[in-house]
Structure formats: C-alpha cells, structure tokens
Amino acid sequence: MRWYARELGYGDQVDFWGLCGLLHDVDFEQWPEEHCKKAPELLAEVSASPEMVHAICSHGYGICCDVEPEHEMEKVMFAVDELTGLIGAAARMRPSKSVMDMELSSLKKKFKDKKFAAGCSRDIIKDGAERLGWTLDEVLEKTILAMRSCEEQTAKELAELCE
Ligand SMILES: [Fe+2]
Hints:
- The chain has helices at 2-7, 14-23, 39-45, 50-58, 72-93, 104-112, 122-132, 136-162.
- By secondary structure, it is mainly α.
- Helix 3 packs antiparallel against helix 4 (50-58), helix 5 packs across helix 7 (122-132) and helix 5 crosses helix 8 (136-162).
- It binds fe (ii) ion.
- The site of fe (ii) ion has 6 residues, from loops.
- Fe (ii) ion (FE2) binds at residues 24-25, 28, 35, 59-60.
C-alpha cells in the first residue's frame, strides 16, 4: 500500500495508506463472522478517523459488507487484498520463493489456472481493476512491483517475530 501511495501520486499519504493496509483485517481473527462489521467499533477505541474506518471496511465490499470503495486507495486495497494472496502463493512455488524474479507472464498463467490458490477470487481482482480503470495486466504488474518493494523488509520482520 505504501508503494501504491507513492506510485499514484499520494506521496504525502504513504503512512495513511500503509496503516489502512496493516489494519484492514483488524476484526477478522476474533470475529470472522462479523468481518468488516466489528471493525468500526475496534477502530473507535483507537480514535481512528472516519476516512480510515471507511477505507478498512470497504475492502470487504460485496463479500461481508456494503461499504463501497470510493477513494482510489480503497479501490487499490479492494483489488490487491485477493491479488497479494495469489502472488504470495505463486512466489512460494518458485525455486527462489520470491517475487523478485516473477514475471507478469508466469503470474498470468497462475491467474488463469482456477485450481491454483482457488481461495483467491479472480472475479474480485477483475472487479477491482475495473473500478481503478486499469487493465488486469496493469494491476498484476503493479502489484508484483509493490510486493518486490517490501519483500526483504517483510521477510526480515517475519524472521524477527519467529525468533
Ligand atoms: Fe479481509
């Protein structure tokens, strides 16, 4: 999300985009049945802004809530929530276990293979791309780049957590 903020000309909102991404599933672990419905209550406890609450809830539009993605950031988060799952699964299949050497063409093959990472909804990714006014290739390509930008840092943080 931080990469996308910079990429799309929201350099002054990098932290906000990143925080929304970090917190988007805030209610999921404890209240999976009330996903995106419990979030406003939890976010109120930390005095989150209405913009943040709207953004976080809208990633579940049409799945678990009726808050529609409006802001460009919300549309990005909606599109990439499922897509990052697909890219992560595709990366784990690679000898490098990495997105660094992943090409668009190989991701497109995984996208078309409905049995691969079947839990990642291709329809939502397509819908998200459409909402952004991007082609499917554009959203796939950009999200590979976004994940490349933070792979090293994420791996480091995960390793520290597991120590
Ligand atoms: Fe979610």
